[in-house]
Amino acid sequence: MATQRPSFPVRLTPTASAATRGRMPAAPVKPVVPSTPSMASDAVRARMVQKLAAQGISDARVLRAMGAVERHRFVDSALVNQAYEDTSLPIGLGQTISKPNVVARMIELLMGAPALAGKPDAKLGRVLEIGTGCGYQAAVLNHVATEVYSIERLRGLHERARANLRHFRLATVHLMLGDGMIGYAKGAPYAGIIAAAGGEAVPEAWIEQLAVGGRIVAPTHSAKGGQALVVIDKTPRGLERLILEAVHFVPLKSGIA
Ligand code: SAH
């Protein structure tokens, strides 16, 4: 048998050994999210939401959703203490989870879809997310939309998102492995389409699969060489396009891997 038994005395982690000996480690400078008590993470998350509001996120539905989803459950255990900081974090396979501020900003834009105009308490209908990654944004979207279809091209991340979301038992989130460049026709038409990866331009398939009254929010290559957020509304009169601030997203790639 190749199973290794621990040798004694077992080496404890510094925190554990200090606690075992009754000595507490020095107080941490930054708010720490322990993996156990959810109340502590609630407090840290509430501070994150306050910060989002101070940064200009004003849609109550979005702030509530950001406050509800436990971001620390989606990141590697080594990064748990950074889960609520305004920073993007690696999620494996060279991909990143966006900063909370960017997630909130994009979802707030999505909630500005023409069909929801003047309905500050309404939910979006069916939403398509391109780039599931670790599944965090899909979980946030689940709070503001009646149904979420999320597609990921990397099998490893698709499976990781599935494992991460299992804890939440979300019956209205559907994860698909596939190339999001062609959208997901089976779920169309969508009230909203949101992309977490940036390509040359918004694929025609997304526009076709968008409902009238719906909105696309996506990073795309900008004329200046970087990326910018693009908003496309489908109205009865046709498409309305708006180019907003510069952003930095991982590239939109075709095919599955
Ligand atoms: N929303 C994610 C962020 C993921 S980063 C989260 O909350 O974690 C963007 C993701 O888009 C990456 O996982 C990348 O693999 C994926 N991606 C890039 N091009 C894609 C495509 N054509 N179809 C589906 N997913 C794609």
Automatic annotation (TrEMBL):
Its EC number is 2.1.1.77. GO terms for biological process: methylation; protein repair. GO terms for molecular function: protein-L-isoaspartate (D-aspartate) O-methyltransferase activity. Residues 1-36 are annotated as: Disordered. Belongs to the methyltransferase superfamily. L-isoaspartyl/D-aspartyl protein methyltransferase family. Keywords: Cytoplasm, Methyltransferase, S-adenosyl-L-methionine, Transferase. This is Protein-L-isoaspartate O-methyltransferase. SUPFAM superfamilies: S-adenosyl-L-methionine-dependent methyltransferases (SSF53335). Pfam families: PCMT. PANTHER family: PROTEIN-L-ISOASPARTATE O-METHYLTRANSFERASE, PROTEIN-L-ISOASPARTATE(D-ASPARTATE) O-METHYLTRANSFERASE. The keyword Ribosomal protein does not apply. It comes from Variovorax gossypii. It is found in: Cytoplasm.
